[in-house]
Amino acid sequence: MRQAGLALGLILALILALSAAETRPAIGAPLRCEAGTPRLRWPTSGALITRFGAVVKGLPANGIDLAAFSGMTVRAAAPGRVVFAGKEPERFGQLIVIDHGQGWSTAYAYLGKVIVREGQQVSPQTVIARIGTSGEAKKPTLHFELRRATTPRDPLPCLPLRL
């Protein structure tokens, strides 16, 4: 019972951190992948439309946004356990948070359809959702974040080069 309470507390802290204005990315942080970061893969093939740290609605972006077509698949960027899969009512709409261990997590927001469930183990590239429009998104978009504890990190240096 105590473990369930601690897990719920961690999930709530992650959700709050995802939407907290005071959790700002470090502008000018090094453009290389931090040691210990999980090996990431692109969660979808959409075009990059917002970079980490770009000012959006007066605040720096804590992740990246990828434009895509409605219904396209969203895949787990790295192996881990789904700690949240559902609706975040304030900004992100349909949201998935995956814990990758050692304090690392990824978040996938503005989804159209969530396919995974909380507690589910996922492998890299497991289909976890479908692109859609939820939360603040005005068009089909994936918002993708990489975090160490509750601190956002730029995922681009950790993702493979795309041409």
CATH architecture: Distorted Sandwich
Q: What can be said about the biggest beta sheet?
A: 10 strands, antiparallel
How is the CATH topology named?
Glucose Permease (Domain IIA)
CATH class: Mainly Beta
CATH superfamily placement: Glucose Permease (Domain IIA)
Estimate the strand proportion: 35-45%
Query: Distance N terminus to C terminus?
Result: 48 Å
Total of DSSP H or I helical runs spanning 4+ residues: 1
Structural class: mainly beta
Shape call: globular
Secondary structure: helix percent: 10-25%
What's the gyration radius in Å?
14 Å
* Mean of pLDDT: 85
> Please, how many domains?
1
Secondary structure layout plus pairing:
Elements (H helix, E strand, L loop, with lengths): L1 H18 L27 E4 L4 E2 L2 E2 L3 E4 L5 E3 L4 E9 L4 E9 L2 E11 L6 E2 L4 E5 L9 E8 L2 E3 L10
Antiparallel strand pairs: 1-4, 2-3, 4-11, 5-10, 6-7, 6-9, 7-8, 8-10, 8-11, 11-12
Kindly describe this structure.
The structure is a single chain. The chain is mainly beta. The protein has a single domain, classed as Distorted Sandwich (Glucose Permease (Domain IIA)). Helix content is 11%, strand content 38%. It has one helix and twelve strands. It has one helix at residues 2-19, and strands at 47-50, 55-56, 59-60, 64-67, 73-75, 80-88, 93-101, 104-114, 121-122, 127-131, 141-148, 151-153. Strands 1, 4, 5, 6, 7, 8, 9, 10, 11 and 12 form a ten-stranded antiparallel beta sheet that branches. A hairpin with a 2-residue loop joins strand 2 and strand 3 (59-60). The longest helix has 18 residues, at 2-19. The N and C termini lie far apart (48 Å). The model is unreliable at 19-29 (pLDDT under 50).
